[in-house]
Design brief:
Structural class: alpha/beta
Helix content: 40-55%
Number of domains: 1
Order of helices and strands: EHHEEEEEHHHHHHH
Number of strands: 6
Shape: globular
Radius of gyration: 18 Å
Strand content: 5-15%
Length: 287
Amino acid sequence: MQWRGRRGSSNIVDRRGRRGGAGLAGGVGGFGLIVVVIIGWFLGIDLTPLLQGGGGGGYTDTAGETRPLSEAEQAEGEFVSVVLAYTEDVWANVFETQVGEPYDPPILVLYSQVTQSPCGGASGATGPFYCPSDNRIYLDTAFFTTLEQRLGAGGDFAAAYVVAHEVAHHVQDELGILGQANRVRAQSSQEEANAISVRIELQADCLSGIWARQTQAQFGTLERGDIEEAVNAARQIGDDVLQERAGQVPMPHTFTHGTSEQRARWFQTGFESGEVPACDTFSAQRL
């Protein structure tokens, strides 16, 4: 993926240089909770303490004691900033041409180890998540190392797919889909709520595919093997694969993100079509 020297986004809040952080008060909410469970399955770590408590308070972006960022952290921050800028330009264009409304981009919060959000506390173990309460994405860039070394999904476009997927949740929020789906989930049984979550996540994968296609069309940034990297990342974080790696027999009724095959296929659906209506997982008879 071509990204060096490209425009970076100004919608970044970088908390990584702060010592001590704000602690891990409150519980993990929204899609952070889902990721906690999935990553916990794979890593074999008991993450249930993160799921205790209520919604957690806010976090003020005021400077405290700081530490210098490493060269790797600086590079990761620059990369995320450029990818986020690509999402801003692409979705602004897609909303104008396909939705007929302006696009309001999210803020992306970079953190190291621990931070807080209105959706609850987060640690590096939670993975990236979107918090609809403040329209922000939370990302510990160390997750990219986990993605490559532990989940077998290396490559810069695999990392870009992760960012694009979380931005896709914001796109769902902008379209009114996420709020409606979450209201239905709140009134459903656990198994029904899981099934709705799968449709939410697969739609985000599809929207990520649209982003990949439009990024190439607008900026010509894709390189040989990039799409394969994204598809591989989607496959490596399917619920069935993660449960198998954790030594479990896959249990479809517990799936919250979709199978390896489903995640890869819906990403490809978005990439091949480039059209938002093609990502209607809620009406799809076959996921």
